[in-house]
Amino acid sequence: MTDDGERGTPGKGLVQGLAVTLKTMTRRSTTRQYPDVEPDLPPRSRGVIALLEENCTVCMLCARECPDWCIYIDSHKEEVLVPGAARARQRNVLDRFDIDFALCMYCGICIEVCPFDALHWTPEFEYAETDVLDLLHIAVEAGLTPLRALGEVGRRRGGVLAGELRATATMAALGVPRGQALDRLIRRCPSDGVTALVAAIRRTERHGAPLGPALSGLAADARTQRAQRLRERAARAAPKIQLVVALLLVPATMLLVAAALTAALL
Question: I need a labelling partner for 23 at 20 to 30 A (CA). Which of 15, 104, 176, 260 fits?
């Protein structure tokens, strides 16, 4: 029925809705494969509060003005010789700057009160890590040995791979040579990622190369490959979905329209 009380064209609303559906079907999908594909956020996004260390003078304004008291700063004083001055001057040197983001309410007061623009917003917003390589990177950067890092990540994370990492660390702790334990890990988990991980650990033990950057690179490569697989899978699924719609949804819709028109005419 129209606003004037007259009967409208039967099935007009249904046809208009289907027209919108068919128009959308022909467009390219804009779905983002998050978290495998990171979103493009604007530069002024309010994510993590970052510190520009060279601008910080340890004035403590941010820590004093923080309503949640979630900023922790440690520093020490150093003497600086100034040419022509009667005596050396002292300056504060930053030792530690931490923000407890579990307490932070992102009010931005610390950024506003900083007189030297040492604090600023960044578009980074992800705090949790779920990938095994990222967790290993964090554990190694925290000071754990490679095998102990394997054990901690395997203990805290579920899954088959985590169980194998935990078993490898346990075998090494029980006296099995590290080489044999790592070889067993490769045999039990024959994948390119595990092989590259074991190779990075062996380079660290043999040549003293830092393991943290190697793990970070492996994690980035793994994310790129995973995102590529998802894009390929989505591209293969699109024609199948369109075929199902063409064979099932369109005929069913036409039957509904025909039924509505028949009922209106009769």
Answer: 260
